[in-house]
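Recall the central idea of this unit: under ordinary conditions, the amino acid sequence of a chain determines the structure it adopts. In this exercise we apply that idea directly, starting from the sequence alone.
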Amino acid sequence: MKKFFSENKTDLIKILISVLLTVVASVLQSFSFDLASIIVFILSYAAVAYEIIIEAVKDLIKEKSASEEMLMTVASLGAMIIGEYFEGCMVMLLYCVGELFEHAAEDSSRRSLERLSSIRPDKARIKDGEVIDASLVRIGDIIEVFPGERIPLDGDVLSGVGSVDTSVITGESVPVEVRCGSEVLGFR
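Accordingly, the structure predicted from this sequence is:
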């Protein structure tokens, strides 16, 4: 969690500023300070929208197509133009919060995959006892896996019975029984 805050500090600050300004503008609006509330709504909008608007224009020029940034820009600016300042700010604010969560989920997935790849075995024992690099095993080669070892490659069990910890792949902590004919998955 601490890493999340440190990696997204600027975005979190922009979102917090926008939220505070939106609240202030809403309070001003409720007391009929219309011009002041409009100015504060515009500041709130600008706090989170300027990078997204710039990205939307870049995408439009480079790609010659509309992106999700363009959609958010058009929707929020449209709301601002028709006088729905709160709604315009909220569209852009919620989009920014969604983007922040999306990046956090991507980072979490990336870290999980890195941890998973760090535990994969790099070696495989061929049937004759020779240990070779797992990337050199060919289709049709028979490999041996002893109790306590990780399975280096996907395959089918040709003989024996045992339990396999598949929690890294399935998330379930219960060992899975495998026997002749069972399919097993390696950590590649």
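The mean pLDDT is 90.
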